[in-house]
Structures are given as structure tokens and as C-alpha cells.
Write a structure and sequence with these properties.
Elements: E1 11-14, H1 17-29, E2 34-39, H2 49-61, E3 65-70, H3 77-84, E4 88-91, E5 98-101, E6 106-111, E7 117-122, H4 125-141, E8 143-144, H5 145-153, H6 167-180, E9 185-188, E10 191-194
Parallel strand pairs: 2-3, 3-4
Antiparallel strand pairs: 1-7, 2-5, 4-8, 5-6, 6-7, 9-10
Length: 195
């Protein structure tokens, strides 16, 4: 089954590797202005990384905006640096699966039970626009790749924000912070005081 059949809106689930490969190549060939990807850089695609990278490089040379959000770890820094030569890259913890968006289409890739690959293709305008909107929200919240890579390479732990609501949990957390702190800076509406 080919995804190309005129301008009829449709959503199709593909399972056969041959159909998936053909559909991905057709998807890439129709990209005009934007390619956005949320997913792990090197997983969940039946295409060879060289084919994907070559395709993305061709798109870049055609002035297509290329952006990707992935989970950057010490294990994939090398491949992320390769992606950064072609596309804008940002980091987000816990990325799973893969969603690729163009101007008018989307591809969702997932591995289900027994490592079976499923691809969902859609050119339904409302679905594409919805996923583009979600991507924009994630893009704004994601960390620039350069910053995340620098943190990993320099062994810097990123700051963590927690919202505590339970009074006992707040008390225990503050007690732990005070016991482990070498200096404490208390801030209040009347000013700051160092202890």
C-alpha cells in the first residue's frame, strides 16, 4: 500500500517493512518547508541512518527548516552531534517513539510487542495541525542540545524543580537540604540573609 493517492485525506496503519520504507521515502520526498521530529535519533525506522541523514541533508540544502527533539544521553552524544550538523536539535528527558511532521503530513512510528514495527501515516489536516501545535509546545520547553551536551561532558547535574504539597514532605525535604548545605541563603520579603 502506498501513501500517495492524490489529495484524499486519510490515516493508514502500515506494518509491512517494504510498505513502511516506501511510505517514508515518499513522505520525505514531499517535504517543502518544514520537517519536525520528536523521537530518538537512531531508533524506530527501517531506513538506514545514511539514507535518513542523506535525505535530511538534501532537505537542508533546499532551505527546509529541520528541527528535532530527542533524549540526549552520554550514550548518544556522538550521533546527536551528527544530527546537529544538519538540523536544530533540542533535548527532552524521557522521549519515546517517533513522530515526524512535514507541512501537510505526519508519520508516527512505534514498536509494539515482539519488536513489530507499526507506522501510522496521516495527511488529515486537523491531525497534522494538532501534532504541529504539540511539537511547538515541546520545542519551547526542550533544552538546546549544546547546553545538554555541555552538561553531560562536564559532569554537571541539571537543576531539578519539585513541587511539594504535603507538609511532612516539605519539612523532611527542608531538613535534608539544611543538613547537607554548607551555606544557606534565606530570602524573604524583607531581604536576603546568609547563614
Amino acid at each position: 500500500m502506498s501513501i500517495t493517492s492524490g489529495s484524499i485525506e486519510k490515516t493508514v496503519v502500515l506494518q509491512d517493512t517494504g510498505n513502511i520504507t516506501k511510505s517514508l521515502l515518499e513522505f520525505y520526498a514531499k517535504i517543502n518547508n518544514r520537517y519536525d521530529c520528536y523521537g530518538l535519533a537512531s531508533e524506530l525506522t527501517p531506513l538506514e541512518p545514511n539514507i535518513v541523514n542523506g535525505t535530511l541533508l538534501n532537505l537542508k540544502n533546499q532551505d527546509v527548516r529541520l528541527r528535532q527533539i530527542t533524549d540526549i544521553t552520554k550514550h548518544n552524544i556522538s550521533s546527536c552531534k551528527q544530527v546537529m550538523k544538519i538540523a536544530q536539535l533540542r533535548h527532552m528527558d524521557g522521549v519515546k517513539g517517533r513522530i515526524e511532521l512535514s507541512d501537510t503530513e505526519l508519520i508516527v512510528t512505534a514498536t509494539l510487542e515482539k519488536e513489530m514495527l507499526h507506522v501510522i501515516y496521516s495527511n488529515v489536516k486537523q491531525l497534522v495541525e494538532q501534532q504541529q501545535s504539540i511539537f511547538e509546545i515541546l520545542w519551547k520547553k526542550a533544552i538546546p542540545a549544546e547546553k545538554k551536551i555541555r552538561e553531560i561532558e562536564n559532569g554537571i547535574e541539571p537543576p531539578e524543580t519539585k513541587v511539594l504539597e504535603d507538609p511532612d514532605e516539605i519539612f523532611n525535604h527542608m531538613k535534608c537540604v539544611i543538613e547537607n548545605a554548607s551555606k544557606i541563603l534565606l530570602c524573604s520579603s524583607s531581604g536576603a540573609m546568609q547563614m
